[in-house]
Amino acid sequence: MSNTILSTNYNFPKQKSVYKGKVREVYMLQDDKVIMIATDRLSAFDVVLPKGIPYKGQILNQIATKMMEATQDIVPNWLDATPDPNVAVGQLCKPFKVEMVIRGYLAGHAAREYKAGKRSLCGVSLPEGLKENDKLPAPIITPSTKADLGDHDEDISREAILEKNIVAEEDYKVLEDYTRKLFERGSKLAKERGLILVDTKYEFGKNADGEIVLIDEIHTPDSSRYFYADGYAERQQNGEKQKQLSKEFVRQWLISEGFQGKEGETLPEITQERVNIISERYIELYENITGEKFQKASIDNIENRIEKNILSYLEKSL
């Protein structure tokens, strides 16, 4: 019996269809209800790695739930309930086909592009003389297209989004406004935990009433990058790497093994020891981001546990 959940194959009452993303599996029900299951799959460079990471799905789901609750006063969201540590239930929404990425620092993808000589990202100009992990003069929004499974997300400018009519201008203004408000709140929450919210991405959709709402996840280590605030300035001044809380440590390990998801590259072997290290890091992320001790859910038959909790919830609510 596996101690991780990599895939699901449920058939719930009033179920209409299932969509399987890189990490989450989404069950659409009648009456505009959605069940989202966070699996233990791990993706990096838009490639899903072959082994699951124990507790990863629980960690992502619980952080996202806490952050949705902490921001619902400024931005409406899709979430109704969390009947299981790996599960969120909410409103069916039609997603916008862009991810709203916002960056407060030159890190990750932006730093790699800058190092390659680019001084414009998604149509936003970047000043000369920046070092990796420097704070930007002001947060910048650098959207990306929403890729299908197996494809790469691609940078896109605000102008191209409007020109191609991917999002209507009046809606895009709302997405930008919500993105900035969420980043401001997320940065405040991070500061309270001795962290810096470096960059993150948000996804939005329209519910059955035509209201724009926040969907998917928010401020998790899969969608966000955090630095430890303590010692940030000294490390930056000395040209040292920043201590960070994010999935970037997985990307850096893959890069060191010669893999960035490009054609012809071979995914390195992921040993059980490596799996355990990644799982421990995700638990560390959870405890630092939330300020709470992580309570491990039972993984003795994780598929049955999830199904039982969802069915119990549906029986009471449908």
Helical/strand content category: alpha+beta
Overall domain count: 2
CATH fold-level label of the largest domain: D-amino Acid Aminotransferase, Chain A, domain 1
Largest sheet: 8 strands, antiparallel
User: Which architecture of the largest domain does the CATH hierarchy give at level 2?
Assistant: 2-Layer Sandwich
Question: What is the radius of gyration computed over CA atoms, rounded to a whole number of angstroms?
Answer: 19 Å
Q: What's the order of the H and E elements?
A: EEEEEHEEEEHEEEEHHEEEHEHHH
Q: Specify the CATH class of the largest domain.
A: Alpha Beta
Proportion of residues in β-strands: 25-35%
Shape: globular
| Uncertain spans | none
Roughly what percent helix?
A: 25-40%
Protein architecture, described:
There is one protein chain. By secondary structure, this protein is α+β, with helices and mostly antiparallel strands. The protein folds into two domains: 15-92 and 264-317, 2-Layer Sandwich (Phosphorylase Kinase, domain 1); 95-246, 2-Layer Sandwich (D-amino Acid Aminotransferase, Chain A, domain 1), CATH 3.30.470.20. Helices cover 33% and strands 25% of the residues. The chain contains eight helices and 17 strands. Strands 8, 9, 12, 13, 14, 15, 16 and 17 form an eight-stranded antiparallel sheet that branches. Strands 1-2-3-7-6 form a five-stranded antiparallel sheet. Strands 4-5 form a two-stranded antiparallel ribbon. Strand 14 (195-206) and strand 15 form a beta hairpin. Helix 1 runs parallel beside helix 7 (272-290). It starts with 14 loop residues before the first strand and ends with a helix.
